[in-house]
Amino acid sequence: MSLTTSAALWLTSSAGCPDATTTKILSVCIPTAFALNHLKFYRFAAQFVRGKRVGDFGCGSGYGCKIFSDEGAVAVRGADASKEAIDFARQRYSSVADFTVQSITALDASRMIRST
């Protein structure tokens, strides 16, 4: 599936969301303007990930890690300062990425790298 096609699948209607100003991305309701802005950056970055090990610092709920995995990254690691966000990411996307709770201002890169 091409990135353009797969990105279109992530943006769905606002059905099931509180109002029409929200959009579902991978079954999570977020503000539409925020979703479109985020996806723009992930789509740009995703063109460079095939065959690479990728880190998403400030990954939030983890959907960007899923995008990178879907686009061919061989390993994906996500980090965010929010324990709640990482708990959510682990519940949703642990099959495609590893996640760690840490702040970008106090980043321990060794926690992002795992021997294969």
Helix content: 25-40%
Instruction: Write the element-wise H/E pattern from the N-terminal end onward.
Output: HEEHEHEHE
Strand count, sense and barrel status of the largest sheet are: 3 strands, parallel
CATH superfamily caption: Vaccinia Virus protein VP39
Structural class: alpha/beta
Which fold name is given in CATH as the topology?
Rossmann fold
Strand content: 15-25%
Radius of gyration: 14 Å
CATH architecture: 3-Layer(aba) Sandwich
Averaged pLDDT? 78
Structural overview:
There is one protein chain. This protein is an alpha/beta fold. It has a single domain (3-106), classed as Vaccinia Virus protein VP39 (Rossmann fold, 3-Layer(aba) Sandwich). It contains 4 helices and 5 strands. It has helices spanning 3-10, 32-46, 63-70, 83-93; strands at residues 22-25, 28-31, 53-57, 75-80, 98-101. The strands form 2 sheets. It has a 3-stranded parallel beta sheet with strand order 3-4-5, with helices on one face. Strand 3, helix 3 (63-70) and strand 4 (75-80) form a beta-alpha-beta unit. Mean pLDDT is 78; it is low at 1-13.
Describe the secondary structure blueprint for this structure.
Layout (H helix, E strand, L loop, with lengths): L2 H8 L11 E4 L2 E4 H15 L6 E5 L5 H8 L4 E6 L2 H11 L4 E4 L15
Descriptors for this entry?
single chain, Rossmann fold, 116 residues, 36% helix, disordered N terminus, alpha/beta, globular
Could you give a short description of this structure?
The protein is α/β, with parallel strands linked by helices and about 120 residues long. It contains four helices and five strands.
